[in-house]
Please model this.
Amino acid sequence: MTELRIAIPEMFSVDEAGMFRDQTRTTIEQGTVNLLLDFAGCRFIDSTGLGVIVSTYKKCAENGGTIRLTALHPNVLKVFELTRLTNVFDII
Model:
């Protein structure tokens, strides 16, 4: 399985979400459907950021792929726990 690592920005909110959506949509359309989202530099995520990640996950799944998350800062992990997205994503 070939997996593309994508670095998540420090503040993943409305402004960054649009660029992320465009980048991942193009990546998936080009056939890369297994993504590793690297949160090492991310300290904040809002509902827009979460929404874009969930919609990207759905696109990957529709095409037989997966999304895994890595290096979540405790603040960011807390958001995933509160929204129960820890049950959806493989967090390594």
